[in-house]
Design brief:
The chain is mainly α and 79 residues long. The chain contains 3 helices and 2 strands, in the order αββαα. A two-stranded antiparallel ribbon has the order 1-2. Strand 1 and strand 2 form a beta hairpin. The termini are far apart.
């Protein structure tokens, strides 16, 4: 967390990685995209706005389903 009270990322790429990770870990979550904060200058994840093209592409190509399933089995086999 930073001065604006939100989880922040120092670059767009790190925020996108977190966004993809959130969608894999929580497929039904409402997170949609990332944005650069005018208050702190860092990047944040948001549920507002349009779905980020990277997430849309993963969904359209069915890669998101495969990533979610892989994460499920990785977790299941770990424990």
């Amino acid at each position: 967390m930073n001065s604006c009270g939100k989880r922040s990322y120092i670059s767009e790429n790190l925020a996108l990685e977190a966004l993809v990770g959130a969608k894999i870990a929580y497929p039904n979550s409402n997170v949609k995209t990332v944005y650069k904060c005018n208050d702190c200058g860092d990047w944040h994840i948001t549920s507002k706005g349009n779905l980020h093209p990277k997430i849309a592409n993963l969904k359209d190509s069915k890669k998101m389903d495969k990533l979610v399933e892989a994460a499920y089995w990785e977790h299941k086999l770990k424990y």
